[in-house]
Structures are given as C-alpha cells and as structure tokens.
Amino acid sequence: MNALRRVWDHFEEGFIAFLLAAMTLVTFVYVILNNFYTLFYTLGDFFGGNEALLAIGDFILDLAQAMTWSNALTKALFAWLIFFGLAYGVRTAGHIGVDALVKLASKPVQRIIGLIACLACLGYAGLISVASFDWVRTLFIAGIGAEDLGHYGIQQWHIGLIVPFGYAMVFIRFLEVFVRILRNQQTGLGLADEAAEVMKLTEHEEPKQ
Q: Are residues 178 and 91 in the same domain?
C-alpha cells in the first residue's frame, strides 16, 4: 500500500508538471508563430519583394491561423491543472489557512474544530463530486464537441471529467486528514500558515546596518 501511495504521489507531481509544461509550450509556439511571420514579410519587402522570404512568411502565417485550437487547449489544460491540483494542495498544505482565532484555543478544542471543519470539507467535496458526475454524464449522452477541439475528437465531457475526479481526490485527501486528526497525529487541516512563513523568513534575514 505504501509503495502504491508513493507511486501515486510521484504521478500526481509529474502530471501537474506535464500540464504546466504543455500549457507553456502551446502558448509559446502560438505567440512565436503570430509574431515571427512579420519578420519574413519585412525582410522580403526590404530585399525588393523576395518571393522566397514572402513564401516563408505566408507559411508561418498559415500555421498561426491553423492553431485556432491553441487557446481552447490551453484553457482545457488550465482547468485540469486547477481541479487536479486541488487534492495536491490538500496533501502538501498548499491551501491558505485562516485560523488565527482557532489557534488561540487549547489543543483539544482545536482538534474538535478541526474535525468539524474536516467534516464540512468532506461534505462539500462529496456533494460536488456527485453533482459534477451527473453533469459529465449529461455531457457524455449529449456528445457535444469541445470548442475548437471537436474536430479532433475531443468532446466536452472529456474536459469536464476532471471535475468529479478532482473532487473525489479532494474527498480522499480530507478523509486522510480526518483519520490523522482522530489518531492525534495533527490538530487542524494542515493548511499553509503564511504568518509563520513570514516570521521564519524574517528570522533568517540579516540585520540591516
């Protein structure tokens, strides 16, 4: 089980890195093509209407115009990054915690508040995952093609599938948190503490002269 968990954790990090890289690459190529063809047009005019340079400019312009799918693909990848990253944020304490008042309470009280908050998160994640699954099923039955991606065989339910999957993973992550709180392994949801991070950075700064 531990080996399977490690494999999943590494896959989770690798998939997030892949989504970021794919978004960056697609956007980079699209921007380059949209600005590079003008160089060849300018050079072609400079050299007295050089047909070879103008033809290269036309070729690059055609490539740029053919990439009408790039914006839609980037938005789809970004959506996958958001909903896939939700559970990753819970695992790595990436979500910001607003618990200044809670920390004023005693440890037993913090533990109770943590359990209540965790139950609320479990209820929310479970509700969204079930509701979004019904939404994706409706899209699957309708068979509607995705915007600017439908002619490549990509349908709306392919993109929307990440919503129930992402919230199901959030549910599992908060369930793990709930078990750890019950076992006294932690008191709260394990969220990021920006104030504590700022204090640590301040302590490591060299005193100004």
A: yes
pLDDT the model gives residue 196: 53
Whether residue 74 sits in one domain with residue 49: no
pLDDT greater at residue 103 or residue 205: 103
Chain mean pLDDT for the chain: 84
- Do 170 and 81 lie in one domain? The reply is yes
Structural domain containing residue 59: 1-67
Residue 155: φ, ψ to 5°: -105, 165
Residues 122 and 19 in one domain: no
Asked if 93 and 190 touch (Cβ cutoff 8 Å), the reply is yes
Predicted TM-score (pTM) of this structure: 0.79
Give residue-wise pLDDT tens across range 43-98. 888 877 888 888 988 898 888 888 889 999 999 999 999 999 988 888 887 666 66
Q: What is the DSSP letter of 102?
A: G
Looking up tokens 């990054």 gives: 81
* CB contact at 8 A, 136 and 164: yes
**Structural contact between residues 160 and 80, judged by C-beta atoms closer than 8 angstroms:** no
Q: How many angstroms separate the Cα of 4 from the Cα of each of 156, 184, 199?
A: 31, 25, 37
Closest by alpha carbon to 118, among 100, 106, 102? 102
How many domains does the structure of the chain reveal? 2
